[in-house]
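Hello, quick one for you while I still have it in my head. I'm working through a protein record and want to make sense of it properly. Would you mind checking whether the tokens look sensible for this chain? I owe you a coffee for this, so here goes:
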Amino acid sequence: MADKTALQESSQALFCAISDYLGLDQTKKIFNLDVYPTYDDFKASNKKLIKTSFERIESPGVKLSDIENFLSVNNDKKSEWYKSSVYIAKKLIEDITEIDKDFAIAKPNFEGLYYFRGDKDIMNNIALLFKAAKSNTDWNKLTNQAPLGDINKWSPADIYLGSNNAKKIIKEDVDKSKNKSYIFTDLNKLISNLIDTGDLLPLSLKKAGKDVKIVKVNFDSKYKKQLLSNIEFSYFSQGTKATAKKNSWSKIPKVSWDRQKHKPSKEVPSRDIIMFLSTPPDITKIQLRHDPSSGGRGGSFKVDVGGNQARGGSIASFKIFTQILSFVDKNFASQLLKEYERATLQFIKEMEKRKFYPGQKGRDTLVNGYTNKGKIDVKLGKKAYDFERGQISAQTILNSVMPMLSNWLSSQKKSVLNNLASLLFEYITSRTQLSSKFVIAK
């Protein structure tokens, strides 16, 4: 069975393919949520259309039945991903010629485009070209550019609309990259040319509501420069609660778990720092937090950009965060990284002491041995475990690293903070000088 992300992306690809086959006029008629409020309703009247459209999707490991089970009203009672897929596909077919006039999906029947997700000929070959360009880049000579840690910082495309001609041309570049020093200039020129000819469209898809936006990213260098230069740091706070003080972060006290009430014995302060940025025309948040549940034994430090309806991107590497920070304060970035590495070792030591890693006795005893009214309650045991693990994260990592970061943010000039905000936003939202053109549907 495909994972949730694969199903989400494949579901959206399916409805893009359906709208492509229908054409603009028929899409407007059939993509009607008053007539078809759930996927089951839509499927009952459009089985042949769905099957025909799915044949234009290359998403290895994902079957049509997987998508249908995911979209079914029985599995998603709010039908959120079905509705999102409908909204996005309808908006895309309405606006696609504004991206490039050569995309002809507004006409009825397929016009030579397929829908690719995780396939070999488009996405895997593009990944090979990214890897080649990354290895041939002298990052030390770049100014204000941290190494692109993964392909999503070059382009976060979830699916590609592509033609057989695109497959052929991309394969030719893969062959060339084996015999020459392939760089990001070559890769970005390839993507740009394929977009211009209507052979390829990289799409980053987010869950969307009625007011879908189609946003072109990295198409206009002048606009991008203006956007980044207009970003301003407003303030930071510990979480977003109404009681959170501006430009302040307090250490997290040790709090026990109340087994009678099945909740913390007292309220625990937020464990993150949130930087609020002014990015016309809206407000953007950059959330910095330690996630003890992912990234291996030491967890991971995550930096998320959010604004409007959808998350703008994220990084899960403290090293990359401090590399970006080093462009505005090299010494502090080095100190902060050292402290994070020291604190992470302490976190690992405490987790091991409690035997809290998967499969260890401490974790299993808490999760599988949690009793509620004399009966084992694994769900409450998992909740208690998550809290206890979060406490270890707070006491070992956050109470060491966040005060340093808070004090630094409070002591800097506005110009320095604006610069940091712009650099973080640029990197996390894939708008660096080496990033490719792509389109966000959100």
Notes: The mean pLDDT is 92. DSSP finds 15 helices and 15 strands in the chain. The first helix runs from residue 4 to 22. The two ends are 26 Å apart (CA to CA).
